[in-house]
Amino acid sequence: MGRRFDVGVGVFGALLLANAAVSTVLYRGDLKIRDEEFTFPSAQVVFEVALSLVLCLWAALKIPGSFLPILSDAKENRVTMFPANLDFMVFNHRGKLFPPKFVEAEFS
Amino acid sequence: MVGASEERELERLEKQVEEGGGGVVEYLSLVRKLKVRRSNIVAKHGLQLLNQASARSKLGSDLWTVYEQVAIACMDCHALDSAKKCINALDSKFPDSMRVGRLEGMWYEAKGSWQKAEKVYSNLLSENPSDTVAHKRRIAMAKAQGNMTVAVEGLNKYLETFMADYDAWRELADIYTSLQMYKQAGFCFEELILSQPTNALYHLGYAELLYTMGGIDNLRTARKYYASTIELSGGKNMRALYGVCLCGAAINQARGRGRTEEESQELVSLAASVLVKKYKEKASSKAGLVSSILDKYKQLAVA
């Protein structure tokens, strides 16, 4: 439900914004007919814009996923050990004295 | 870098592979990705995998990487015949490859034929002087022969050219530490911390170095780095928690009677309480023992 709901909220917010835009254009058209000066958009438009801001903000924060920690190593996946420095690997170690037994390589 | 979840995954796959439950290809791929040294298991199961023609054909383009991986693991386990066969297979596929050339040099190293290995690397470097791995192998060769002075000189020269190579800085820090040249090792750790300031393990390494050097100023700096390790690792690094306790006790002893300012003891008691809590969670039978030791440190830190 989560992601779909968030996307739905976002879409609803965008539609509300579009509705506010259309309402503003119609309102200004009305004003022209009534021969009045435009001073302030109607209360309905202001309310719609404010609501769509909240809804779009909700969707923009929710849809991409949860925030990552600022400290990249903290929390769950912290760095626990270094990779072996394989470029400087040395074969002359004490394990050489007791080599383990393996199957013979049968390819060439 | 190996994270906590990758480590868990590696352990799970390793157990599965050792019990014969399959997943060898995934295991080999994870070992390559995490760059861990598990030569014994890689050589054992890698050779079994490569011996089966059907498994080889299933590997697809990864086949040659697996050959290289198994060759290096075999050299590490001193199974030189098997390693040679892997190298031969690679050589017949890529006759003029420098990467295969390096493997041949490494094979001579594993055999103990230092002069032949040196010749291989010299040839590779004359063809391509910026071949970093060949440079590093020469340094590793000096180290393998116990010639630490040459290894240090080589690494310093190498780092003048390739100063962004942090593996080399880490190696130099290790060598200096093994030679007890702590001041020089400290410089390397500073470089490493500058390169990756959020990596807790570099902070921890530097803190341990400073603690080893001793002296009140070094101990105070060590405590700061232990504290930053705790912050960066989300309070889960036990070495750092112990380090803070030890530093608290050591600073107080180093100050002796000529104390001029009051040191804060909050950090020590907090670290000690976290340690005891962790022991109670994971190994409750040892919790009593640990808390008695930590109480001693706390007393030393206050006294």
TrEMBL record, chain A:
Task: Could you list this entry's UniProt keywords, alphabetically sorted.
Answer: Membrane, Transmembrane, Transmembrane helix
- What compartments host this protein? Membrane
- Entry's Gene Ontology molecular function annotations: inorganic cation transmembrane transporter activity
Q: Where are the transmembrane segments?
A: 39-61
Main location as per UniProt: membrane
Q: Which GO terms describe its cellular component?
A: early endosome; EMC complex; Golgi apparatus; plasma membrane
Q: What is this protein called?
A: Membrane magnesium transporter
What organism does this protein naturally occur in?
Physcomitrium patens
The gene behind this protein is: LOC112283979
UniProtKB/TrEMBL annotation, chain B:
Q: Which organism is it from?
A: Physcomitrium patens
What family does the Swiss-Prot or TrEMBL record give for this protein? Belongs to the EMC2 family.
User: In UniProt terms, what function does this protein have?
Assistant: Part of the endoplasmic reticulum membrane protein complex (EMC) that enables the energy-independent insertion into endoplasmic reticulum membranes of newly synthesized membrane proteins.
Q: What is this protein called?
A: ER membrane protein complex subunit 2
* Subcellular location as annotated: Endoplasmic reticulum membrane
What lineage does the source organism belong to? Eukaryota, Viridiplantae, Streptophyta, Embryophyta, Bryophyta
Task: State the source organism's domain of life.
Answer: Eukaryota
Quaternary structure, per UniProt, is: Component of the ER membrane protein complex (EMC).
Report the main location listed first in the record: endoplasmic reticulum
